[in-house]
Amino acid sequence: EGTGENVLIKHAAFFDRNHDGFVYPWETFKGMRAIGCGLFISTAAAIVVNMSLSQKTRPGKFPSLLFPIEVKNIARAKHGSDTGVYDTQGRFVESKFEDIFKKHARENSSALTSKELSEMLKDNRESKDIGGWFGAFVEWKILFSLCKDKDGLMQKDKVRGVYDGTIFEKLEMDRQSTKNHKQGFVESKFEDIFRKHARSNPNALNSEELSEMLKANREPKDLTGRIGAFVEWKVLFSLCKDKDGLLQKDVVRGVYDGSLFEKLEMERKSAK
Question: Which residues cross the membrane (predicted)?
Answer without folding.
Answer: 32-53
